[in-house]
Design a protein that fits this description.
The protein is an alpha+beta fold. It is built from eleven helices and 18 strands. The protein has two domains: about 15-105 and about 190-355, Sandwich (Jelly Rolls), CATH 2.60.120; about 120-185, no CATH class. The longest helix has 13 residues, at about 95-110.
Length: about 350
Amino acid sequence: MYGSESNREDSERTAFRRAEKNYKLYYDTNASKNKKKKKPKPVDLTEVLDFRSILECHDRNGELPPFVNVIHDKFSSPVFSLQNRPGFYFIPGALSIEKQCSLIRESLIDFPQPPNRTNHNAIYGPIHNLFDEAKEGKVLVEEYSPVGSPELGPDCGFQDGKRWKFVTEKEELIRKGKSVSASALLRKLRWSTLGLQFNWSRRNYDVSLPHNKIPEALCDLAKELAKPAMPAGVEFQPEGAIVNYFGLGDTLGGHLDDMEADWSKPIVSLSLGCKAIFLLGGKTREDPPLAMFLRSGDVVLMAGEARECFHGVPRIFTDEKNAEIDHLQAQLSHEDDLCFLKYIQTSRININIRQVF
């Protein structure tokens, strides 16, 4: 999805690739072609590191696995690190249920709003109010509009001489041209960028692109969460963020996040929604990666040497048994929140915040 993936010729025999294939969602080939009726193939999860279980065990008797360390004095709850991955920190359940729900709402309503860019910009230009338009059952339709046409309204996008506008389904029936439902666009939303905008084609931050600062509340949260990975007296400065949206079967291939100037500063990664498997490898794809569960509310920090480690997400669990989002379902059960609940029941959102310079 993003990051350094230049070595496409890497053989599937690399240790990282084998782990990706091991945990990736596959269906029984004898099952129905309908995804809803397909039965996922079973996967062995016995070697997946579970920091929530480690935390519970540590709280009971103070015991830890031999390769795991714990830090108590840099955050309000225990922070775990790995002896063989310096600069990697895991904070299980760092986000309150209320904060998780608030961030889910913002990720769907506010974070994809222009001037923030999304994966849809390349085709449709800036799209305003996507989540609200999806709730109302609107359709995005194409209308040719010559360059130099009057300024577009907030419900319009403009890209390559094409004007895109949200209309009702009834209006869409009498129009010609291409169209796509807002709900389909919402489900195909894969990323949005906050703060300094990342140029995906050039793989750098383009300070010339219009942008807003990262919301103050998110900045304050990131500064607090980053403390375990920061030297004493030094404050993390959030300047850019990427929000990833995962649906059923989506993955994030092994990559490095290497476009920031100072790798000693952490990437602050927040997990929301359905449980996932995270792979943390080494400095080459040949290094066998560690697999670990990421649940809603977990936070990962990667700084220093950990920034040189390949990592990715080969699997999210959207089935009721394994998604582990009962707490979100209870919190989002109010009528006004049912639209968010419907989305997050089969999705995962990851917000990763960076100090760019």
